[in-house]
Amino acid sequence: MTHSFTCRVYYEDTDFAGIVYYANYLKFIERARTEWVRSLGIDQARMKAETGTVFAVRRIEADYLKPALFDDLLTVHTRLESLRPARLGLVQDVLRGETRLFVARVELVALGRSGRPQRLPRALAGLVAYGAARPDP
Q: What average pLDDT does this structure show over 47-73?
């Protein structure tokens, strides 16, 4: 399943020329990941309180294809690419209409209270796997 998140480019997201500053794409995809997790029924604050599990970005590979501009309406598509015991691999695309502007491959790792990698809680892994298997609407 692909999750979609929409956001608007504000003046604060751009440089003097009205082009989105490169680091702000990382903010857009972070927000989209948070909403993807929420759409799966996962409350990250509760997960942290109950299991000590949090997600951290371990690796990101980003390709900037075309610039986004002030006042653009962007859609971020997020989909699960891989699921391992302590890691999630995601692909995230940022589009303006049908035009792909940015693509990232993101590897998330589950961290425990000690700050070290740990297995995803079984219930969480099941929700992620089930969410990824659902057909796109």
A: 96
Q: What is the mean pLDDT of the chain?
A: 92
The residues assigned a catalytic role are: 15
How far is Cα 100 from Cα 89, in angstroms, rounded to an integer? Answer: 20
Distance of CA 94 to the CA centre of its chain: 11
- 0.85 exceeded by pTM: yes
**Distance of alpha carbon 74 from alpha carbon 32, whole angstroms:** 11
For range 68-93, the mean pLDDT: 96
What's the token pair of residue 52? 């000590």
Domains of the chain in start order, with CATH, are 2-131 (3.10.129.10)
Instruction: Please give the Cα distance from 97 to 40 (Å, whole number).
Output: 25
Smallest CA-to-CA distance from 41 within 108, 124, 117 is with 124
